Amino acid sequence: MLSPIQTEFTNLIGCKYPIIAGPMFLVSDSVLVSAVSEAGGIGGMPSLNWRTPEEFRKAIQDVKSKTDKPYAVNLIVNQSNLRHADDLKICAEEKVPFIITSLGSPKDTIQTMHQVGSKVFCDVTTLNYAKKVEDLGADGVIAVSAGAGGHAGPISPLVLIPYLKKHLRIPVVAAGGITNGSQLAAALALGASAVQIGTRFIASHEAKVDLSYKNAILNADPEDIVLTKKISGTPLSVINTAYIEKQGLELSWLETALLKNPKTKKYVRMLRHWIGSESLKKAILGPTYKEVWSAGQGVGLIDELLSAKEIVHQIVKEYYVNIERLNSFTSEKSRSTYTEAYK
Ligand SMILES: Cc1cc2nc3c(=O)[nH]c(=O)nc-3n(C[C@H](O)[C@H](O)[C@H](O)COP(=O)(O)O)c2cc1C
Q: Is this model's pTM higher than 0.85 or not?
């Protein structure tokens, strides 16, 4: 029986371990989400993984039928997401306990979800944006740092976490490259109160992606991860397959210009997103030569396919082993001196 790890985050959300399985486009479904939540973490899923708002509502109900523990939904809150109002209404009606927003202004999401008692955390990559969401009433931020799968931020987690912690009053969750318990211990030492993990959960039995994608994660090295603008218009972390290499990583000058133009940018972004989603979908569903597999630098630390429960519990066990190891570096006397000094 593993002891809970109690942090500001677990107290706020009501889970046993400070581990979120990050929402992943086309990857996270109700099976993965409920398995992580049942194991004591928080499973997260993007609303856009379902074709219609009603299918999304059914997925929430499916999670609720599989677990009574808290789970998370990710809402893309910028203007190009035409589903936002419908999905937000469903989240409020279904009383989704925990919302993760990305892109755009989370103002209406925070207001609506606070009315039903939910907590709202926002993905951030910079202090400027983090301060804005704090002022809007966000309950916490998710510090998406360099090395993350999906849309990675530019700043090293070693800097971003304590930097945000220093300037914000709300809890900070660390995201990017985290796969094991020594990294959880490190993130908490840096000031985070939880971690959000994506790539590690793709290599799980529950993730509904083609085996070729899971194997690519097991076989890839951190050096294989590149950032391409060709999928969504903004840098996306992917494994550098032959197809990605052939496509190149940058947009054409014409598309770049259209994306800068206020009159055209919304439509070009939507078109690029649609094209990118289609290629991601093909690569996720089955073997194809168009291998577009999003993953972060943590691939270098992932060696075996495990169940979601095994992943969560392994991370917790490794966390305790590493805390013991760190404690062994100091004597009983100096430990109590430090504890006194940090009170
Ligand atoms: C394939 C993939 C898809 C993702 N899709 C989303 C998404 O739809 N919304 C979101 O907020 N984050 C998304 N993310 C980011 C994750 O939720 C998480 O923050 C990130 O994966 C953490 O970095 P790691 O992969 O290095 O653990 C995605 C990540 C991956 C790898």
A: yes
